[in-house]
Design a protein that fits this description.
The protein has about 425 residues and is of the alpha/beta class. It folds into two domains: about 200 residues, 3-Layer(aba) Sandwich (Rossmann fold), CATH 3.40.50; about 160 residues, Dihydrodipicolinate Reductase, domain 2 (2-Layer Sandwich). It contains 13 helices and 18 strands. Strands 12-11-7-10-9-8-17-18 form an eight-stranded mixed beta sheet. Strands 3-2-1-4-5-6 form a six-stranded parallel beta sheet, sandwiched between helices. Strand 15 and strand 16 form a beta hairpin. Helix 5 packs parallel to helix 6. The longest helix has 19 residues.
């Protein structure tokens, strides 16, 4: 079967930690062909090229960098991705790993150039943009996956099945938490994670909003978010902490606490958990996921853990590289599974229609997209756009000191403030 070429737009942390290693492994298993990475400038590309852990895990593998490594490190190429996409053969795969506010323009550019897409979460920051992407992709027969990797956590899959079988009861109240490391403040986050663009609830809280919807199918109907501001090292102001409350169509309530401040010296790489309580007949059910501590702890001679700490909770479940029967190491975990699911789906689509004329292949590609939408495992614009409504409501709320914002469904889903006028 023909291999799928992959272009990654964005060379930052998520590309280094998850996306490029996952794509490298898919390359050596025969799914992926040529790999390109396009960034604003070349310092992150050099880091990807020279990373000792990546070179050790994937010996002999490489990618084509854009811009070239010979360019001055201080020179930026904000529109280079457009040229790179324009030169790609049609119906390959584009991974969008840019800051949240840039997702919409890059995804649309990829679709314009007839490319399938995998986008890191959240897909976009406006519901209408998600609908626009969904319609254009279906019209062209192009697959768009959203990297909500917690859907692929085995704990989530077990919970989803048990909920569907009625073993928990009706969701009533819950609490979720995701506190990312303090060192994020010293990264490129300080250049785009500003109060006018995003906040911790939107950036990482969306994982648990999506997960509760994935498990229960309940739609959020109201959101309120309060934030705590602070300064990044470069002086930019951002929401460093946030707490959101999501109300669902059955009256259930989920509290979500997020931030960029988990101590670098602490044992875990972050703090994350989900607890849900359910009402049954004469009894209650419960789901409890301690997603930070998975029962494995290491104490190193030197500080090699996240943030340079010595004692670490070593979760083997999200992403690790481990020995395997081939050269180097292979990635494991639900982070890899999520990336692999979308790239493999794209490869499968094109393999199934290989040799067919457009008139015959387009209906087949559309049928595959709709089937995936309905199955609901891989997040797509069609089955995850409640997240864009929550994001819109959250941004309106946090900019109005936590005022509740309603989510209204029907023919034209939208958000509006419960009281007064929102920005």
């Amino acid at each position: 079967m023909k291999k799928t070429d992959v272009t990654i737009i964005g060379g930052g942390m998520i590309t280094y930690d998850l996306i490029l290693p996952s794509v490298y492994h898919l390359q050596r298993t025969g799914v992926v062909g040529r790999i390109s990475v396009c960034a604003l400038n070349n310092p992150p590309l050099k880091a990807l090229k020279n990373g000792a852990d990546i070179k050790q895990a994937f010996p002999g593998q490489d990618f084509t960098p854009y811009p070239a490594l010979s360019e001055p490190e201080t020179k930026n190429f904000p529109d280079l991705f457009k040229d790179v996409l324009a030169k790609m053969p049609p119906r390959q795969a584009v991974v969008v790993a840019m800051p949240d506010p840039l997702h919409y323009s890059v995804v649309m550019e990829a679709l314009k150039n007839n490319q399938h897409v995998l986008c890191v979460k959240p897909l976009v920051l406006k519901y209408d943009h998600a609908v626009e992407i969904e319609k254009l992709a279906l019209e062209k027969g192009l697959f768009v996956g959203v990297e909500y990797h917690k859907r692929f956590d085995r704990r989530s899959l077990v919970a989803k099945r048990q909920y569907a079988l009625g073993h928990f009861g009706d969701f009533a109240i819950g609490e979720a938490k995701m506190i990312e490391p303090y060192y994020y403040r010293n990264s490129n986050f300080q250049n785009w994670f500003t109060v006018d663009k995003t906040d911790p609830f939107v950036y990482v809280g969306c994982h648990y909003v999506d997960l509760v919807y994935f498990i229960t199918g309940l739609k959020p109907v109201e959101v309120s978010v309060l934030g705590f501001k602070g300064k990044f090292p470069n002086g930019n102001e951002g929401w460093l902490w946030a707490n959101g409350r999501v109300r669902y169509e059955n009256g259930a309530i989920l509290s979500v606490t997020d931030g960029l401040g988990y101590p670098d010296d602490a044992a875990g790489s972050n703090e994350q958990c989900l607890e849900m309580f359910f009402e049954g007949k004469g009894k209650c059910g419960m789901i409890f996921h301690d997603d930070q501590y998975r029962g494995v702890a290491h104490s190193y001679l030197e500080g090699i853990g996240c943030g340079g700490s010595h004692y670490n909770y070593v979760s083997p479940d999200f992403y690790r590289v481990v020995p395997w029967e081939g050269d180097g190491y292979k990635p494991i975990g639900y982070g890899y599974d999520s990336v692999a699911a979308t790239i493999t789906a794209i490869h499968r689509i094109e393999s199934d229609v290989d040799g067919l004329a457009e008139k015959q292949s387009l209906p087949k590609r559309r049928a595959f997209i709709k089937e995936t939408d309905e199955r609901g495992l891989i997040a797509t614009p069609a089955n995850s756009s409640i997240n864009e409504l929550v994001v819109e409501a959250a941004r309106m709320s946090i900019l109005n000191d936590g005022d509740p914002v309603k989510i209204l469904y029907g023919k034209h889903p939208h958000v509006e403030p419960r009281h007064g006028s929102g920005k």
